Each structure stands twice: as structure tokens, then as C-alpha cells.
Amino acid sequence: MLALRELRKSYPGFSLELSLTLPKGQTLALLGPSGSGKSTVLRLIAGLEYPDSGSIRMEGRELLALPPEKRRVGMLFQDFALFPHLSVYENIAFGLREASWPKERLEQRVRALLEQTHLTPQAHKLPHLLSGGERQRVALARAMAPNPDLLLLDEPLGALDRRLREALVLELRELLSGDGPTAIVVTHDQQEAFLLADQVAVMREGRLAQLGSPETLYHHPADPWVARFLGHRNLLSPEESSQLGLPRKAHLIPSAALELGRGPQARVLERLFMGERVGYWLEWQGLRLYHESGESAWQEGQSLSLSLNLSRLIPLEGA
Ligand SMILES: Nc1ncnc2c1ncn2[C@@H]1O[C@H](COP(=O)(O)OP(=O)(O)OP(=O)(O)O)[C@@H](O)[C@H]1O
């Protein structure tokens, strides 16, 4: 288990303050906008930065008392940083040679990792001959080689184009799930965080805005900021809520609360064709609501009847 306790780090104009725990074997995603402190957390754990105060305990050891190389933490960088002149095999073996692993044990470990990451046929290739996905797996195998207690992945899919990211996120998910390593993944992509992590920590300005499973976070965001950050578009302010007869609090309108085909008229303000799905911004009873569906026939200016099931709205803390 990893435990960060009251970890503090200040830079001019920015301060981080964080406590959280991560059970062994689980994956945590640090999700937040640019500048919210995600990479700082990784750097503090890896030992590339030192905190002003606090503690980082991993399997009962205080990591802050140890130099980076003794922390048993593996790091995977955004650009993978493979050694271009070394084969796949030698890239994976690199850290083990540095740590003077005995020959036989080293060979066994590298072969096992090649198997696990489906890279055995590529073992003797140089990195430039590999696909993006294969390169990612080499980098991951290299980071996992010395059996770190914790794997840190900083935007592991950040440098790749969207189509490749979509395929690779599933490969990464397979490697991290089940009896995979304890891992922390930094990402600013909500979908990636949800697909990879058991727990998601949403960060805002150096603080933990919310920690929870992807489903809990999505269905029960802590406040309107988290709700908006996770892509919810239909939120009521406290004033709008009270006009509808609800308590004077912000509310989230889940898509299941919008019922089409009955109720007062809504006007289509904007139609956003995206392919399989079409998004519609609607004006209804003085509110601007967003609805997404497979229905593509509605046009701008058209009216539809719509009702809002108030019993399904979720009250949120904060404004
Ligand atoms: N070495 C440093 N010296 C001064 N300020 C720093 C340093 N490292 C980070 N910061 C500041 O700390 C804040 C958090 O940076 P950090 O890189 O952790 O954010 P992030 O959430 O990872 O952002 P991104 O998604 O853009 O990578 C930023 O305002 C940044 O400018």
C-alpha cells in the first residue's frame, strides 16, 4: 500500500497539499487540468523533487528517507525514452545490468517480460523498427523489469495520435489490471483515466478535488467544478434549482432525467453532428440543456417536447 500524508510542496504561485492512499496492485489515475500539480506528485514520489513537508510510505518504508534509486519506483515517461541503439531485449535488460543482476536471473526476467508484453518476436529489433504500441510496451517492460513496488506513468499515451491512443489504452489497461503492478497514471484525459484506473484522483490547483472509482466520480461528482471537468454539461445553479422548486443548491441533471416525447416544448438551438452521435443544445423553460443521441433528424429551430424528471437530479455541494 502507498500512503501520501499531508504532502506539501510550494513553488512561487503554486502550492500542493495532498493526502491519499492506494492499495497494493491497484491503479490510480491523477486527473486534472494543466498546472494542477499532477506531475509534481509523480516527481515527489520518484524522488526527482523533495517536498517541504509530509510523508510518502510504501509497503511500510518511508520513501523520503531514500534516494531515488533505492525507492523501488519505476517511471515511464511520455516519450518512452527508449535507447535507440539498443535492441528491445537490451532496453529491457538495461536497468538490471546497471543493478548487476546475475546473468541467469537477468535472462529469465527479460524473457518473462518479453512474453508478458507479447514482444518475444521483436526481441532483437531496434526501437525505430517498432510500432508505437510496441514501443510503449518496451518502455513499460523496462520500467517493470526490476520489480518496482510502484510504477509511475506520466501521460503514457500523450505523445500519440488519437487513433493509436484508443488502441493502446486498452493494451495498457490489460497490463495494469488483474495481478499487474501498483501504478499511478498521470493524464488530463478523462476517458483514459476511467479506462485505466481503479481509483481516480481529480486534482485542482494543487488540491484533491475528489477521490473515487470512475463510476462514483461520474455519477456523484463532489461539486459543480468536478462535474464540469468530467464532461457534464447539464448543471443547474442554486437559483435555477430553486426556480424549479428544488432546494437552493447546485444540481446535476443526469441524461436519464431528460425525457423526450412529452412535456413542454424545447427549441433546438444548435445541432452538433459527430457521426454515430448527435449533440443538441436546447432551450427549455429558460434553461439551456444539452442532449446527445443517435437521432440525427432534428434540425436547428425545430421544437420537441421534453420533460425533466426532478426526482432524478443529483444535489451537489458548492456553487
Ligand atoms: N521546478 C519548478 N519550479 C517552479 N514552478 C514549478 C516547478 N515545477 C512545477 N512548477 C509549477 O507547479 C505547477 C504544477 O505543475 P505540474 O507540472 O505538476 O502540473 P501538471 O498538472 O502536471 O500540468 P500538465 O498537465 O501541464 O503537465 C505549475 O504551475 C508549474 O508552473
UniProtKB/TrEMBL annotation:
Upper lineage: Bacteria, Thermotogati, Deinococcota, Deinococci, Thermales
Gene3D superfamilies tied to this protein: P-loop containing nucleotide triphosphate hydrolases (3.40.50.300)
Keyword tags: ATP-binding, Hydrolase, Nucleotide-binding, Transport
InterPro entries for this protein: AAA+_ATPase, ABC_SmlMolc_Importer, ABC_transporter-like_ATP-bd, ABC_transporter-like_CS, P-loop_NTPase
Main EC class the enzyme belongs to: hydrolase
UniProt keyword annotation of Transport present: yes
Protein name, entry field: Spermidine/putrescine import ATP-binding protein PotA
Residue ranges annotated for the ABC transporter domain, each copy included: 2-230
MF term (GO), any: ATP hydrolysis activity
Gene Ontology biological process: quaternary ammonium group transport
EC number(s) from the headed UniProt entry: 3.6.3.31
Native organism: Calidithermus roseus
